[in-house]
Structure formats: C-alpha cells, structure tokens
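Our platform keeps sequence and structure together, in a single record for each protein. Nothing more is needed to write down the fold, since each code stands for a local backbone conformation. An entry from our holdings is shown next, in its original layout:
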Amino acid sequence: MYNSRIIGLGKYLPENVVTNNDLSKLMDTTDEWIQERTGILERRWIEKGSEDTSAIMGAKAARIAIERAGLTKDDIDFIVFATLSPDYYFPGCGVQIQEMLEMDTIGALDVRNQCSGFVYAISVADQFIKTGMYKNVLVIGAEYHSNGLDKTTRGRGVAIIFGDGAGACVLTREEDDTKGILSTHLHSEGKNADKLIVSSPSIANWVPEIIATNGEDISYYPYMDGTFVFKNAVVRFSEVIIEGLTKNDLTKEDIDLFIPHQANLRISQFVQKRFGLRDDQVFNNIMKYGNTTAASIIIALTEAWEQGKVKDGDTVVLAAFGSGFTWGSVIIKW
C-alpha cells in the first residue's frame, strides 16, 4: 500500500467582484446584515458573456496545478471532478477536462457531493493511488453558482452566500507512509436531504410543458433551512475531525492548520473555539469568495500554500459538511 501526496495546487476565480452593497441593489439586504450572519464581504460571480463555466474554470485551475507539480498533462492517469453545478445535466465535467487539456483517453469520474465534494473526491483519488491502480490523479472542485440563484429578496437567504470559482490539485504516489494523506473519513445522513436542496430539474420535473407553465416554481432555486443546517454542521464537523485525529493517534494540539469548507464564517469560528485553535491555525477566505461549495476547500488550501502557511511536516486537517447531508475529513502530513 502507498500513500498519496499532494504535489501541485492551483485555483481560478472570476474577475468580477460582487460586494454586499452590490447585492443590496438587487434585494432587501445590507452589508451589515450579510456580514453578521455569514462573515462574507464579497464574492466572485461570472459576468454575463464570459466564457467561464464550471468545466472551463476547472481546466484553468488544473493547468496551474499540473505545472506546479512539475508534470505535464500526459503524466496524469485519472481525473476526479467534484461539482454540484456541471455544465450539462450529463455528461459530467470530468470528460470535458480530458478534452480541454488534450489528454489521452484516461478515465474521468464525477463526484456529486456538494459542499463535501472535494473531500469525497480526494478520498476517491487517495484510494486509487493507495491500491496502486494509478500514480498521478488530478482532482478538481469547481462551481458556477451565480447563474442559478434567486437574486431577489425571496432568495436572499441563499443568494448572498454563494460564489463562483475553481481549484485543483495533483496527487501522486508516496512510498513513505508517514507523509501525505494519512486517512479520509466520509459520512452521510440522507434523511435530512430536504433541508438543503435543489429539487429541480429532475426526471420527474423535466417535461418542457411543466417548466413553461410554472413560472413561479421555485424548486429550481436552492432551498436551505439555515438554522437546522448550522446546528448539524457544528456537530458533524467536530465529530469527523476527532475521528480523523483518533485514527492517526493525534490530538487537537497536533493540528498545524485547519481548513474548513467555507460554508459560513460563524460555523468555522464555532468549531475553532470548540477545539481551542488560534487564529493562525485556521484558514478562512469566505470573506472574499463566499461559499464556493466543492471548490471552497481546494481554493483555500491553494491560497494558504501560496501564502506560506502550509509547510513541510505540518499536520493539515480538512473538513466539510453539506447537502445530503454529507460530511467528511482528511488528515494530511504535508
């Protein structure tokens, strides 16, 4: 058995910055109201007319990650793409990456685990490498939320939170089992699926006549029971972090850097306080980018690495919670 190790990181954010004050012109909200509830100051939204999509942003981030890994596209053996906002209902974005990067006919897998998407995708890639099936796996998280949000007062509880962006990393084989990804931990609880959901489009609600005659049908917009999600998130975050630390005979004192999914700054602060972590032990960037769902952790990890906050020998903990409900953690010895 091998370990897998991250050797290249990349990110891509659209240039268009949307501030809280910008949103106040679209809906009944204020900068103070948004900051108090989410900690978000601004987010990136793809401008109308831009070429960017989830797949295109993913490809841009992937090229950076592959170059930083010191590899070429021909060295990649497999692709794992995590998103809740694919370019098409099907096929998934993974095959688009294979084509955009002009790769050989390697396999491509799509992960649909929403906010936990990157954690699940990393776990899949890690297992492929651990078993010896592949040596170099490209993992991407990318989201194009802004085109699917209800940007009115009716939808403000969700629309203010989400942003667009992409991140990518390259995992490779590591023969030293004390380095790289030490373990991943995945969970789900489907009974709460309707607490954070986009219920359409679906095969049950697909016929053009149904769509055309339901102009007020809000099932095509995200719905979230925010209080219920928050209460579950803080519990599951803590549980799955402890699970990962225990698996590796580590304690909270061993954490050098904790990078949570950027769902809500208040959730991150709650978990930070519960574990007694200093500000310099936790990396948050939701203030600048909002919640980029499957892209959030990999964007944050890339940014932390670019700022020199991830160093050789560090114990890095990633954790996510989101729609499904799904949640998970990754324990890394950098």
